[in-house]
Every structure is written in C-alpha cells, then in structure tokens.
Amino acid sequence: MADYGDPEAEYRAAREAVALHDASYRETLRITGEDRASFLHGMVTQDVKGLAPGATAYAALITAKGAMVADARLLKRDTDLLMDLEPGTGAKVREFLDKYLISEDAELHEATGEWALLRLLGPKTPEVLAAALGAPFEPLASPASRQVTLAGAPVVVLGPPAFAPQGVDLWVPREALEPVWRALVAAGAAHGLKPLGFQALELLRVEAGVPRYGQDMVDTTIPLEANLTHAISYNKGCYIGQEVIARATFRGHMNRKLTGLLLGEAEAEPGTELRKGEKKVGWLTSVVRSPAQGQRVALGYVHRDHLDPGTELTLGEGPTVKVAPLPFSGTPL
C-alpha cells in the first residue's frame, strides 16, 4: 500500500514514536541440506559458514563479471538458511543458484508462501514488542535474531534494517500475518503506532542513504559502486565474482559511486542526467522530498571526480544541485 491516508504522519511516527509496515510483498527463499552453508558461502559476497545459528548477514549475489544479480538478508538457522529478497527477484536468484548447484547436498525452496515480513520502525519499538509479548524486550543488534511467540505464532525477530536503526523486522508465518498485525496494532495503540505505507518507507530509506535493488541497483551495478562494502567479506575465500571485487578494491576506487544530491525545490525523475558543464557525470536513481532536509533530495551515481560534498552539478539542462554525503544529516550544504 502506498500510504494509509497521511504519509507525513506515518513518517513522523517512524521518526518519533513507532510505525508498522507490511512488507509481505518481499520474497523468501529457503535452503536445506547438509551442504547448504558451504554452497551459499561460495555464491554470495558475505561469510555464511562463519555465521552462528540465529545470526543474520546482508549479502550480494554477483555474476563472474561482478555485476549484481540481487541483494539479500540471510538468516542462518539450525536446519536451514532463509533469504529475504526484493520482490520480483526470487525466481532470478533461484535460477542463478541452481546453475551452480551440481553435486552439493543442498535444496532450494520457494518459501514466499510460507513466510511474510513485517517491519516495526521507531524509538518505541521495544515498548510495543514488550506490550505484545507481555514481557520486556531487549533491543537486538543488527546481525542478531530471536524467536518469540506472538499471537500464538512462532515469529522470528531480526535486528534493525539498515535504514531504521531503532526498528526490527519480523518474519511471520504467512497464515499468521493478520493476527500478528492486529496484535502489534493493539499493543502499539498506547505508543502512537501508525501503519506505514511504502511512500513513507521510501522516504526513510533515501534519507538514510540506503540503495534498493531494482531502484538504485540493477543488473549492471557492481556492489562497490553502491557503497555495499558492509555486504562483502574480504576474508572468506572464493565466491562467484570475487576477482572483480578484489581488483576494484586493490585499485582503490570505482569510476562512479552512489551519493546524495540536494535538489532544493527542483523537480526531477529517476534517470535524470547530472552534468558538469557539457559533460554527463551521473544520473539520479531515487528522488523524495525530505522533511529533515526541508527540500527534495536524491540518490544518484556520480563520477569519482565530482564526489566532493558541496560540488555543484547541473540537473539535466536545468537547475544547479549539490552533492551531499550519505546518510543525509545535519545542516544542508
């Protein structure tokens, strides 16, 4: 759902109190078998074998040429691995993994029909969970998870998503999605909880400088261009596409990087060119109006020669905009 009638109030709730987002449109892949961890370890940019049961990690899947197939949040459990994926990427990821699955004891299962994701965002998240669970809830670190019983269902609580350090993700059995939603809404009533639509979620994401696959990352993006160093383990050994990442890291720079742009009141669409004089030096990928910045802001790719904060670029053939560091914070440049 784009919004619940008042995107500004939803945004404020996520910033100042608590908001609940139905992310059940996301897709889930489950991997079983004795070799599941070692197989996936060789397929993604992140360390999988080194994860303890219950730990999570953010990873990218890339081709042998270093271009992205998808990104994923992984959860390692005692008997399987779960992958949380952007909508529309599940079949693509499964096909990519299947291509390299030869003799390993590992099986891929489409699990979107089994699991749904909810997101609680905001500083009052622990209070809402405590009220829903009937017991204190200790905040989770980002790479951790905890299993709880909520509305009679086994729910996996994951540490904060990248764009919401005061939130949690909840993996809910799909058949229990509605009762768990109702339980959280009831528990949050005393704490100012508001349902949050996709429009406000995107605003939070862009302000946090977090790229989204399908919007800011596509199948020609190299993870280092999108600032995904936190998705890459440099100690794990071989994986598909490792040589490209290693060469780019050794070189010390990418030709372009994802950065922030301050647009003022200029209106622009994703894909709009960024120019320096007559030369194209980048393009926009996400555009929102930021309450925190008091203006429109964007994510976009800019050539490395023009990445310094405060650098002025021309938006298409129109107004001047400024490069800004990510995440967007503090006083606008």
From TrEMBL:
Chain ranges of the Aminomethyltransferase C-terminal domain: 256-316
Keyword Cell inner membrane: no
Gene3D superfamilies the UniProt entry points to: Probable tRNA modification gtpase trme, domain 1
Keyword Amino-acid biosynthesis (UniProt): no
This protein's UniProt keywords: Transferase, Transit peptide
Domain spans labelled GCVT N-terminal: 8-236
Alphabetized GO MF terms: aminomethyltransferase activity
EC number: 2.1.2.10
Protein name in UniProt: Glycine cleavage system T protein
Organism field: Stigmatella aurantiaca (strain DW4/3-1)
